[in-house]
Amino acid sequence: MADHSEVAYTTADGMDYPAHEQTYEGFLVMTKYGTISVIVLLALMAIFLT
């Protein structure tokens, strides 16, 4: 069997943390506005479709 005692990603070089953080911030913003949009859509459906 192969020796798996060392985790590869902990020793990887060249990690682009600023790009990672920027992508995560974008994900959080899109999640926030997406959730708000769905709530507004459901509220409008409840008002006008009943």
Characterization of the model:
With 50 residues, this protein is an all-alpha fold. It has one helix at 17-48. It is elongated, with a radius of gyration of 21 Å. The termini are far apart.
The major pleated sheet works out as: none
Helix share bin: 55-70%
Order of helices and strands: H
- Detail the poorly predicted runs: none
Radius of gyration: 21 Å
- Secondary structure class reads mainly alpha
Distance between the terminal alpha carbons, to the nearest Å?
64 Å
Please count the beta strands (DSSP E, at least 2 residues each). 0
- Average of the residue pLDDT scores: 86
List keywords for this structure.
mainly alpha, 50 residues, 64% helix, elongated, 0% strand
Short description:
With 50 residues, the protein is mainly alpha-helical. It is 64% helix and 0% strand. The longest helix has 32 residues, at 17-48.
